[in-house]
Amino acid sequence: GIVPFGQAFFEPASGHVGKGKEIAGMTTTAQVLQQFETARKGSGKCKATHKRPHRALVGTADEYYGEKGGAYQGKTLWEFFSTKVYGCTGDVSSVIQNEAKKLTGKSGSTCYQYTSCPGLSDARMNQYCTVEGFGHETGGWETVIENAFRDFFPNEKASPDCQEEEDAYSTETGGAPPHGTCL
Q1: How far apart are CA 166 and CA 171, in angstroms?
Q2: Residue, of 182 and 120, whose pLDDT is higher
Q3: Of 25, 27, 144, 155, which has the highest C-beta tally within 10 A?
Q4: Mean pLDDT, rounded, for 76-98
Q5: Residue 148: is it exposed, middle or buried by C-beta count within 10 angstroms (0-12/13-18/19+)?
Q6: What string of DSSP letters covers the chain?
Q7: Residues near 109 by Cβ (< 8 Å), separated by ≥ 6?
């Protein structure tokens, strides 16, 4: 699975809008989406031959990808990824806030998903979550990854060697390691 935290999709053959290359009257998000579309016409475009579960988290106050003042609008970049790379279709909906908080471990969370994402076992396997007021920081990443991997791989069990490693981690730190650390 893929769990970007404080990051958003970028078409590899495109990259960011270059410094000093901004177009007056156009947002950097709109400009980079144009770059993405151009890049997708070439052979270097992102083409997911195997679609992996994906859950991203970006704070609304993230200065790079946040919905409120970020250099780019991360949700818009996720929508591009979802439709152009993963082939998701239908409406974008948000999960109820209580469920979003369970996914992220943070109050003020909203998680989005498409109605359908062919090639994934369930449309919930491609989600984009925002956290109100959260900036470009790393607090709580363990919870996001643990919950994502529990959802991505619900039937996986740690190997006996892994269970010993996880038990040792718990004894040393007083906490559980992220689920699936050894998988």
Answers
A1: 9
A2: 120
A3: 144
A4: 95
A5: buried
A6: -B--BS-----TTT-SPPTT-PPTTS-HHHHHHHHHHHHTTSTTS---SS---EEEEEETT-TTT-TTT-SS-HHHHHHHIIIIIS--EEEEEE--HHHHHHHHS-TTEEEEEEEE-TTSSSGGGEEEEEETT--S--TTHHHHHHHHHHHHSTT----HHHHHHHHHHHHHHSSPPPTTTT-
A7: 97, 100, 101, 103, 129, 130, 131, 132
